[in-house]
Amino acid sequence: MNFERNILITGGAGFIGSHVVRLMVRKYPHYRIVNLDKLTYAGNLANLKDVDGAPNYHFVRADICDAESVAEVFRTYDIDGVIHLAAESHVDRSIEEPFAFAQTNVLGTLTLLQVAKLYWESLPERFEGKLFYHISTDEVYGALEMDGGLFTEQTPYGPHSPYSASKASSDHFVRAYHDTYGLPTIITNCSNNYGPNQFPEKLIPLFVNNIRMGKPLPVYGRGENVRDWLYVEDHARAIDLVFHKGRVGDTYNIGGFNEWKNIDLIKVIIKTVDRLLENPEGHSEGLITYVTDRAGHDLRYAIDSSKLKEELGWEPSLQFEEGIEKTVRWYLDNQEWLDEITSGAYAGYYERMYSNR
Ligand code: NAD
Ligand code: TYD
Question: Is residue 283, in this structure, part of any structural domain at all?
Fold first, then answer.
């Protein structure tokens, strides 16, 4: 079968990647979607069970740091577009093991850039019609004061955690490949995502999981930090739009205009879980446990995504109340997913499903 486009999505077995893969596979049956993922602890092919057999979907298990394997994927599938999400993504882990973050986020991104450049340069049309799209975070901008306005695309980079430092560095390499070699690139920087399939080390799924297990809810510091939350399917829609309509060489911020102080958000989560589990109101509030603050904990993130709205017409579609209800319900309806991912049982999924293909 001849496909109109051959798109490589890295990190497609992770939280955001799985939503992007699903959207692209379903919306564009005339595109071939190749999902390249190393399947670290955060990668879970069970997130993609519903598109696994689609004729336009292919999975390749590989490490983005392995130039030869990545180059083979470019040649085999004649890749003409990249949506790069593969990364180590958790701030707390980055504090424990910063080198893993430099390895995947910096060197992995650099490897991918170089492979894309070399492959596309070898073609008669070179960079024409090609795109390397890097998915990044608002955390590269550093932290805002409570009354400190919003991050815009002009905000200078000022990362604090090893995670955000590694993402900032990868953003700089992407821009350097555009400015130095003319590689067609786009970067988007997005705020905190929430929704189904997120690994329960991040705030929302961790707290839903702990509430159902009756375990303590560790609130860092006084719970005063502020994050801007965006429903993951709205992010996936933005990625689709930017991939097709974004201006090459440019950067767009993506956010929800939806700021929450952690402790207020935590109270909404508790209330929602208790209601859905038919616990009496306030039942799980006693699980709140204030713990030592995260080292270098950024006070506030908040994104101005008006450029994306004005230029490409994107805005979040889901109200937060609806999004959080949908999310909590999903985790409670999929307690098996939570049990298996927290016990590591999904780690064997790849071997079971792919070993004889
Ligand atoms: P995730 O941790 O859920 O998934 C990451 C995926 O990348 C996993 O499937 C993992 O197996 C894969 N991976 C890791 N190292 C790899 C390697 N060396 N080679 C190939 N695959 C590898 O992450 P996520 O939350 O879905 O984030 C995806 C991207 O979006 C990241 O680049 C992250 O920085 C960015 N981002 C995330 C958020 C958020 O709120 N989660 C917000 C803004 C931007
Ligand atoms: P997290 O989901 O780790 O995302 P990020 O650090 O990228 O913003 O954390 C969201 C907020 O919740 C952040 O301010 C840290 C806080 N937090 C807690 O208070 N307790 C926890 O157990 C976790 C994981 C996070």
Answer: no
C-alpha 137/C-alpha 188 separation (Å) is 7
Read off the pLDDT of each residue in 156-182 and give the average, rounded to a whole number. Answer: 98
Q: Are 135 and 186 in contact (CB under 8 A)?
A: no
Q: How many CB atoms neighbour CB 326 within 10 A?
A: 15
- For all residues of the chain together, what is the average pLDDT? 96
Between the CA of 84 and the centroid of ligand 2 the distance, in Å, is 23
**Banded model confidence at residue 349, pLDDT cuts 50, 70, 90:** low
Active site residue 163: yes
107 pLDDT band, cuts 50/70/90, is very high
Domain assignment present for 288: no
Catalytic option among 63, 80, 88, 138: 138
Average pLDDT over residues 38-57: 95
**Measured from the CB, is residue 117 less than 6 Å from ligand 1?**
no
- CA proximity to 134, closest of 171, 106, 168: 171
Residue 346 has a pLDDT of 67
pTM: predicted TM-score of the whole model, two decimal places: 0.97
Residue with tokens 């994050």: 227
* pLDDT of amino acid 342: 83
CATH code of the domain covering residue 310? 3.40.50.720
Centroid of ligand 2 to alpha carbon of 265 (angstroms): 11
Q: Annotated catalytic, 139?
A: yes
Which listed residue (63, 80, 88, 139) is catalytic? Answer: 139
Q: Extract long-range pairs of 24-30: CB within 8 Å, 24+ residues apart.
A: 24/240, 25/51, 25/54, 25/56, 25/57, 26/51, 26/54, 27/240, 28/4, 28/56, 29/54, 29/55, 29/56, 30/3, 30/4, 30/5, 30/56
Q: Which domain holds residue 252?
A: 5-195+229-256+300-317+348-354
The answer to whether residue 353 scores a pLDDT higher than 70 is no
Number of domains into which the chain is organized: 1
Q: Which residues contact 343 (CB under 8 A, 6 or more apart)?
A: none
Q: Is 304 a catalytic residue?
A: no
Dist. CA 341 → ligand 1 center (Å): 16
Tell me: pLDDT of 62 over 80.
yes
Phi, psi of 330, rounded to the nearest 5 degrees: -60, -45
